[in-house]
Amino acid sequence: MKLSHFDDQGKAVMVDVSEKPDTLREAVACGSVSMKTETFRLIMDQKINKGDVLGVARVAGIMGAKRTPDLIPMCHPLSLSSVRIDFIPVEEKCRIDIKATVRITGQTGVEMEAFTAVAVAALTIYDMCKAIDRSMVISDIHLVEKSGGKSGHFRWKGNPETF
Amino acid sequence: MKLSHFDDQGKAVMVDVSEKPDTLREAVACGSVSMKTETFRLIMDQKINKGDVLGVARVAGIMGAKRTPDLIPMCHPLSLSSVRIDFIPVEEKCRIDIKATVRITGQTGVEMEAFTAVAVAALTIYDMCKAIDRSMVISDIHLVEKSGGKSGHFRWKGNPETF
Amino acid sequence: MKLSHFDDQGKAVMVDVSEKPDTLREAVACGSVSMKTETFRLIMDQKINKGDVLGVARVAGIMGAKRTPDLIPMCHPLSLSSVRIDFIPVEEKCRIDIKATVRITGQTGVEMEAFTAVAVAALTIYDMCKAIDRSMVISDIHLVEKSGGKSGHFRWKGNPETF
Amino acid sequence: MKLSHFDDQGKAVMVDVSEKPDTLREAVACGSVSMKTETFRLIMDQKINKGDVLGVARVAGIMGAKRTPDLIPMCHPLSLSSVRIDFIPVEEKCRIDIKATVRITGQTGVEMEAFTAVAVAALTIYDMCKAIDRSMVISDIHLVEKSGGKSGHFRWKGNPETF
Amino acid sequence: MKLSHFDDQGKAVMVDVSEKPDTLREAVACGSVSMKTETFRLIMDQKINKGDVLGVARVAGIMGAKRTPDLIPMCHPLSLSSVRIDFIPVEEKCRIDIKATVRITGQTGVEMEAFTAVAVAALTIYDMCKAIDRSMVISDIHLVEKSGGKSGHFRWKGNPETF
Amino acid sequence: MKLSHFDDQGKAVMVDVSEKPDTLREAVACGSVSMKTETFRLIMDQKINKGDVLGVARVAGIMGAKRTPDLIPMCHPLSLSSVRIDFIPVEEKCRIDIKATVRITGQTGVEMEAFTAVAVAALTIYDMCKAIDRSMVISDIHLVEKSGGKSGHFRWKGNPETF
User: Fold this and answer.
1) Which among A50, A73, A134 is the nearest to B60, CB-wise?
2) The whole model's pTM is what?
3) Which CATH superfamily is domain C23-148 in?
4) What is the pLDDT of residue D42?
5) Which fold has domain D24-149?
6) How is chain A classified by DSSP, letter by letter?
């Protein structure tokens, strides 16, 4: 068993994908932001008439996906084909779930782009609300599904609550 | 109660800090990455002789803190004074805890920089190990402590397990 | 009469501001996007119920202001204190006017940051609507007001129609 | 009629181009910077012996085209094949016209890259000359021509004065 | 004889590669950092137990290769397929040699990416050690080998000492 | 003797400068690009009538200085006060020497910014000329002078040939 981003002497490398074929690939990641009741209410209300926290977070998440190779050292720079972000408010838990779906026709997968989109959207929700709730928690960022590469189809088998 | 990043008509703004004094400010954030036993072992072993996952993640986290204003829409661009990242392996849980400490002498706080450092370090651990463990989960990213601004000292009062 | 960004031999330089005092400075720039009637209507309607073109453009403009030193070669990297963007729909002209206000306590002015915010917000409006209207025109980007530096207060004396 | 960057619920998305074929695409955009007579003269003279405003603006515009996906939220990151910028001095109007031509072999068009090149070149001209002329105006940024995508050939039919 | 990045009137352009075929290309560049004996010893020792200068420099070099189009004005933005960096300590000279190998399947070569990787890794070594040795010198950055493009195979024929 | 960018356990850190006073600091770095006679001639001639290699390289170097914290992992993000780049053609050696001078009023020095400016300018000269001369060599990048910090004044005492 071996970590692919290190060579035989333990040196970090950006792995060579130059001879892999271009295939259609998709990755879905998710995560959640938990908060106080009043913060949750304010976000839901703002959406309608006083400011759109989730709208700003969606833009940030999509732009964040594009910055993945600037942030994650061994990630390949990629020409992403599509990024979308969905927010699923879970009222009884005062939690906003975030789902990012990224697609590409390319030589390598887009898991990290989906993760980064989720993380940046979550951080943005925190930033937009931190003046009223410093105790928000970002949790449960994980891969939901991945398809299209040589490593085959992956489907998350964990806790069904989030996705 | 009002979200500070929106004005009275609900328009997003980068809030005005131009008349605030420069003060010494510090923020500490943390988070964790949970993984399979063999992944945890491999990271711990690699550290010694076959590649340094945490070393790469530390560099990524520190660089990530500097990219915060590029990622989080309403964050001010800041001249950070210091960033440090600590990893605390929790063997019995197969979990790596991540703590980021950011300092500045400036007009606004550095919470988001500490959060971004944690998130980017966590995403990098995922990326470096994903070939052997796609089911890792990033969780519990929260503010531990914050001092030095007008809003006073904040100390996390939640779950004592992580920090 | 001399261009400040060139030295005596005509070489481009980032001019030296190291001995200038920190003062509170503000710059206001504006510009406009003209479009077909139906595009204008769609933007105004979308704002209410089907997507928020101006919300996305506002986030882009604020983030764009922060990228100014990456884009404009001789601009100093600056710790901006505040950025805000206002959109003024001019219904009878099917035109959206854009106004950006940037503040800093620093050694040099923020005109270019205000201009860049306007330009990026305008480009984003174009991008969001180009599928239905390729003939939109971005015009009249100019400085409205500037205060706080050694060069004194500037107030635009041109065409009163926009600002 | 629908804005392509929003889904059916009005959420912003980076539209999916993963199944579109790679084709050769070109976009041409233009714009202009109007200024005082002496500013125009100085730029024209400087070109010859005391500093090259347009040379700096050309480099900035080409580099700006490459930053388009960092600036415009829903733009795809693209491997541009070519960027060129032409300046056309219009002496009787004391105006510099700017034309940017961008090409790619790819899945989506490069209009926004051509627009961004024009805007950044125009902003740079402003920045290089602002010490002597704060009243310059950037105007008339529009698409001149576009070819190679599914939406067919577009040719600007407006005001013949600029292009 | 003509510089390819200028057109017939001497204007800088990003040259058009839109009709070139995708081929597998590789470039190898190298360079060196010379230092005092004790600095060299410290780097070699640190590697083992007190901090990993070369590990940090390797991450920086790989990330630097990805920033090439942001830094070098006429470079095309590229989807790099692989980047690796090797350090070769030359004990008798108190010198660390750096070799970067970059691959792509694309329309243009990756020499500048290999050069940038070497330069950024070298600058990082300097930065990490400058507190104890300000007189380090970075030298001999050159192309070692290049293959896969229309211009044919290039093999460095100079000084055999470094590579 | 200790490397300042590592803590006592050998972990990389961005060192804490939050309590250091703002002082005026300056750093001067230099380096050189050696080339074939005809390449050198072409650059010198182009300057006059067919394209301005050094003009493009100067813009790239100044912009590169601003990207230093994005490239060098442990560098602080700084509000640079001034950057200038001089090229000194050394005809008898077919070499272009590059000198970068960076100033700041700040809490930490700007050596790395001066180095990065030299390196990016040198890489750009290579890029602009590589179609006619792949064997150019970048050498002798070193610190010439540094003043203004606690570590005192540094003046290079090496080879007098370059600076």
Assistant:
1) A73
2) 0.96
3) Molybdopterin cofactor biosynthesis C (MoaC) domain (3.30.70.640)
4) 92
5) Alpha-Beta Plaits (3.30.70)
6) ---TTB-TTS-B-B---TTSPPEEEEEEEEEEEE--HHHHHHHHHHHHHT--HHHHHHHHHHHHHHTHHHHSTTPPP----EEEEEEEEEGGGTEEEEEEEEEEEESS--HHHHHHHHHHHHHHHHHHHTTT-TT-EEEEEEEEEEESSTT--EE--S-TTT-
